Amino acid sequence: xxxxxxxxxxxxxxxxxxxxxxxxxxTALLSVPLLGTSGYEGDIARFKAWSRWAALEGVTTLYAMPxxxxxxxxxxxxxxxxxxxxxxxxxxxxxxDLQHALESGGLTVAVKAIGFMFHLIGAxxxxxxxxxxxxxxxxxxAAAAYAVNPAALYAVAxxxxxxxxxxxxxxxxxxxxxxxxxxWAGLAFGLSLMTKPQAWALVPVVLGVGVSAGWSVLGxxxxxxxxxxxxxxxxxxxxxxxRQLLDLPFRIVGWMPYVNAGGHNFWWLVTGGMNWDSLWADxxxxxxxxxxxxxxALVAAAAAFALWLTRTRRLSAIAPYYAFAWYVLTVQAHExxxxxxxxxxxxxxxxxxxxxxxxxxxxxxLMTNLVLHSPEIWGxxxxxxxxxxxxxxxVSLANAAVNVLLLACWTFVLVRGGAPEGLPASPASRYVGxxxxxxxxxx
Length: 443
Known about the structure:
The protein is mainly α. Helices cover 66% and strands 1% of the residues. It has a domain at 256-437. A hairpin with a 2-residue loop joins strand 1 (284-286) and strand 2 (289-290).
């Protein structure tokens, strides 16, 4: 009778590769009906208009687009939409007529496919990382939990959101930093910052870990981050449109600058879910303190707590907690802004019961948030899909309460608990948050 192949052996690697391929293929087939829908038509229309402008005028002129298609995304995602636009122009319509493009089902699939492709790549990354730490069975299970996650597929394959792009880069940055490959971690992190604004939320924790670890880590981390940010900016510098790129943070802050823009978080709960387009983030909350200032203080406190936790825990165990804390406590949150918590959590699902509980709850609250604000379900007018009433409003408030409760419980678990299951604590480590494997153990 033959013996089972070890996980690291050639047969073991072959089985893991086949399982990953089957998962990717199965997820793709499962998502075909979702990719064929019209998606979140308001955002899809903007993405199509961006792809058209990029294909006809060049990506470096995108920030000159007038309303209603003005651009509030960093350039990496825009390059991706530009590639989709070039393919559409080559294969479908050389004139790239705007109205025809807005009605094109093929272009809808093309812009959706960008985020979906990175969703599949992210699932493979989860599989490889968890397999190296806990074996191929745990790796495939974690990858499957993320790949076929209903909330993730609804946001990416149906709505067409590009969240997997910055999420993939953030996961890579966190994992590389844990491995003390600080330069490569910085490169991935810098690219993520130039992909979607939510990546900026992790700046305090990622750079804080670098500062605490010392110059040997902070130096290459900072250099890599600058390189990752400059690389997609170079075409704008060469084209002379870099001043428009520097205006991007103000564009982002000015886009739907409400206390809450549809995300079921702390501010949705305390304002009764009734602040859409009527309560602004820079309005006074108390005396001279604005909602934005109060939110910044809360997020800063969460960042400080997260950095304190990295003294004894892996950064990968703390990053999803802080990402979720940012979502719950920030102003201007949208319905899909908790998405990046899922892939960050997925690489920790093998570490014990709590990551799996948090993953399940975030999945539920994200899915509920998306469905309650879906224009294709409730109607295209904001009065129908954003101004909730009756039972839908009650469910949304309960959903926000669950998110706030999860954050409170998660905080309690981290304060009360020791090192995650299967991971030795390392209070004396001079690399804050960069916990090494025990001798002879898996990295």
